[in-house]
Amino acid sequence: MERSWLDKFRMALNVARVSETGMGLSPANVLKTLDMLNDLEEKAEQYREKLRMLEARSNWVKTSEVLPLENQPTIVIDRKGCVHRWVYSKFYKERFLQMGYLWMPDPMYLKAE
Predict the structure, then answer these.
(1) Dihedral pair phi/psi, residue 25, rounded to 5°
(2) What is the pLDDT of residues 34-73, one digit of tens each?
């Protein structure tokens, strides 16, 4: 079983602590760093869980997975995070794929139907 980067880093810190050279790190700094890593790991897991919940509730679709229907009004988030309204056309497919990252049907259009 391959170890995660975090496990490898912890091992390196433990080696540094045992060797007493500490690679420039005192035992107190090693312990402080381990505590910080544990905190970061917990926060990262919290953010991953929030992201999973948001993805489950959203209608956003990756442009690389599914394209809209011809002439379908959409809302698009580009790779820079800017939001655009777009009526999809196969004629502009390459531009849509280059520009877009996520899309969803335009809710205003859906209400009008």
Answers:
(1) -110, 130
(2) 777 787 788 888 877 776 666 666 778 888 888 999 999 9
DSSP 23: G
Contact 96, 88 (CB under 8 A): yes
d(CA 12, CA 88): 52
What token pair was written down for 68?
């809209």
Taking a C-beta distance cutoff of 8 angstroms, is the pair 65, 100 a contact? no
Please determine, for residue 22, whether its predicted confidence score (pLDDT) is greater than 60. no
Cut 0.85: pTM above it: no
Q: How far apart are CA 75 and CA 85, in angstroms?
A: 5
Distance CA 23, CA 32 (A): 15
